[in-house]
Amino acid sequence: MGFSLFTPLSWNDTGFILTGVLNTIYISVVAIVIGTILGAIVGFVRAESNKWVNMLLGSVLDILRSVPLIIQLILFTTYVGVIGYPLEPFVAGSIILSLYTMAFMSEVFRGGFESVPKPMQVAARSLGMSYWQTLRYVRLHIGLRAVFTSWLGVALSVIKDSALVSVIGYMELLRTSEQLISRTQQPLEILIGVGIFYFIISYPLSLYGKHVERKMAL
Amino acid sequence: MEYQYHWNTVFDKMPELLDAAFVTLHVSILSLIIGLIIAVFLALGKMSDRKILNYMSGFWIEIARNTPALFLIYMAYFGLGAFGINLSPYFAVLSGLIFINAGYLAETFRGGFLSIPKTQYSASKSLGMNKFQIYKYIILPQMFRKIYHPMTNQFVWSVLMSSLGILVGMSELSGETQRLQSLSFRTLEFFMVAAVMYYIIVKFILISTSLLAKKIFKGDI
Question: Which of B63, B79, B194 sits opposite A187 (nearest CB)?
Answer without folding.
Answer: B79
